[in-house]
Write a structure and sequence with these properties.
Layout (H helix, E strand, L loop, with lengths): L2 E2 L5 H12 L20 E9 L6 E3 L1 H5 L1 H14 L6 E6 L15 E10 L3 E3 L2 E3 L6 E3 L6 E3 L4 E10 L1
Antiparallel strand pairs: 1-8, 2-3, 2-4, 4-10, 5-8, 5-10, 6-7, 6-9
């Protein structure tokens, strides 16, 4: 099931947008990113995560490094998400190839913002514009990807359990 939530006004994201523009979101490389994703895409995760190497579950490195951003992400999520989320993935200018989120459990909420055009989300071969419009779907069950026509600077948020 895919559900479009209420479109948010651009000002709703402005505080977070300003915060994100002031930090460096690291690039993932083929050695540390998900198979099939473009080399050097930029992404960080906030909230509760499991360490890849130690297996320890706890508050992510970036949540501790940027608590003001984590607080703002939580504020946004509490308004938009129809479920209690544990983690928030922040992408910057990521164009995802076709994939399933095999490790996800349940639904996720995706929303994007920024000064950009293109790069729409395609879920089960239907194109959606997530710019300021949260979309709820189960990425483990529904194949999804972005159109490869990004112009500008795009941030996308994925809230999940």
């Amino acid at each position: 099931m895919i559900k479009l939530l209420e479109k948010q006004d651009v000002v709703f994201f402005e505080p977070l947008h300003q915060m994100l523009q002031k930090i460096i979101i690291p690039s993932k490389t083929t050695t540390n990113n998900r198979r099939g994703f473009p080399d050097k895409h930029k992404a960080i995760t906030f909230g509760i995560t499991r360490s890849r190497f130690s297996g320890i579950i706890g508050l992510s490195y970036y949540s501790k490094k940027y608590p003001h951003i984590y607080d703002e992400l939580c504020r946004i999520g509490k308004i938009m998400c129809p479920f209690e989320f544990k983690s928030i993935h922040v992408n910057n200018n990521v164009v995802c190839p076709k994939h399933f989120d095999s490790k996800n459990i349940g639904e996720s909420v995706l929303v994007s913002f920024g000064d950009y055009t293109g790069c729409n989300i395609v879920i089960n071969d239907i194109v959606y514009d997530a710019k300021y419009t949260p979309i709820v779907f189960n990425g483990a069950e529904l194949e999804h990807y972005n159109t490869n026509d990004l112009i500008g600077n795009k941030y996308s948020l994925v809230y999940y359990i």
